[in-house]
Every structure is written in C-alpha cells, then in structure tokens.
Write a structure and sequence with these properties.
Largest sheet: 12 strands, parallel
Number of strands: 19
Helix content: under 10%
Radius of gyration: 15 Å
C-alpha cells in the first residue's frame, strides 16, 4: 500500500492505525486538529515520509486554530519529517481553548530535519515518553517554548526518557525551558 495525500488531518474523534505500507504526505500532518477534536495516530510498522519542509507535523493543535488534543504512538517502522515537528502547539493565542499533545516513542526510528518542539506557545502542553527506538533531530530541540510573537509565559513541555537514542545534529541547540516551562527526566537511553 502506498498513499500520497497532500495533507493528513486527524480530527473530530479520529483514529488512524498503521501497521504496514508507505504514507507520503506533501504538506501538513496534524493529529488532533483544532478546538474540541481528539486525534490518535498509532504506528507499529511501515514508513511515513512528510516531505514539505515549510509545513509541520503537529501532535495536538491546529494549523490555524487552537484547542486540539492529539496522541501519536510510534512503536515501529520509520517516520521522517522535512519540517518542524511539534507536540502540543497553540497557534498564537494565550486564550483558551488550549492544545495538548502526547508523543509516545517506543520503537520507531524518527528523523526530523526541522526544529523539534515539545510544548509550543502559551497555554499549550506537550509531553513525550521515549522508551525505545531512535530520534534524530537536525535542528533545534526545545522542551517548553513560545514563538517570538506569542504573549504570555510560553508552553509547558515535559520529556520522560527510559530508553532509546536521541541524536541532536546540525546547527543550533538542545534546550529545556526556552521561554516556557520545560522538564526532562532521564533514567535510561542515550542523548
């Protein structure tokens, strides 16, 4: 199976499970898109390739509106993203509704060529549990941040790492708590 949609938007109370094949997405890939929506993406095998560098993978939060709740369970296969990968993203408003995202990385090889954010913009909450697999980021890695134009205290981001390998390459930094609240609890794995 080989699917090539322009965008993937998992909203309402949508659930997508992937256990084989190839999914190639040209632009946005959003799980939990906008106010009132709850989306889940679960992957046990196969290949996901998000090719558009100017667009994002967003787990919890809409492209232009806030308030979504998204969960990604990445337990096998490979997932590559040319653009930003953000978990828990408010578009730009500190007012409710707030977005919430959860990334459970437990076996997938995840490659992000753009920036990697856990919690972005005031009111949003991002959480990552990293138990196995690999994460390679070729740009900024930030836990708890906000955009320059965003008002308020920034997002809340937290990472719990018990296994796996997190590789940060390329220019820029690995920051916990950058204009937001960030925590990282590491009891296993390698960074």
């Amino acid at each position: 199976q080989d699917l090539r949609p322009q965008n993937v938007m998992i909203d309402g109370t949508g659930t997508v499970k992937m256990d084989s094949g190839t999914l190639t997405v040209a632009d946005d890939f959003v799980v939990g898109n906008g106010a009132g929506s709850t989306g889940t993406f679960s992957m046990s095998d196969g290949t996901v390739s998000k090719t558009g560098a100017a667009t994002a993978v967003t787990i919890g939060g809409g492209v232009t509106v806030d308030g979504g709740t998204g969960t990604a369970n990445l337990n096998g296969g490979s997932f590559s993203n040319s653009g930003v990968f953000r978990v828990g993203h408010n578009f730009n408003s500190p007012a409710a509704p707030h977005s919430s995202g959860t990334l459970n990385l437990g076996g997938t090889d995840l490659f992000v060529n753009g920036e990697f954010w856990i919690g972005n913009n005031t009111g949003a909450t991002g959480t990552m549990s990293f138990t196995s697999g690999s994460l390679t980021v070729n740009n900024w890695s930030i836990i708890g941040r906000k955009d320059d134009a965003n008002t308020g205290i920034g997002a809340s981001g937290s990472v719990t790492m018990t296994g796996g390998t997190w590789t940060k390459s390329g220019e820029s930094n690995f920051i916990v708590g950058d204009t937001g609240s960030g925590t990282m609890d590491m009891s296993g794995g390698l960074v």
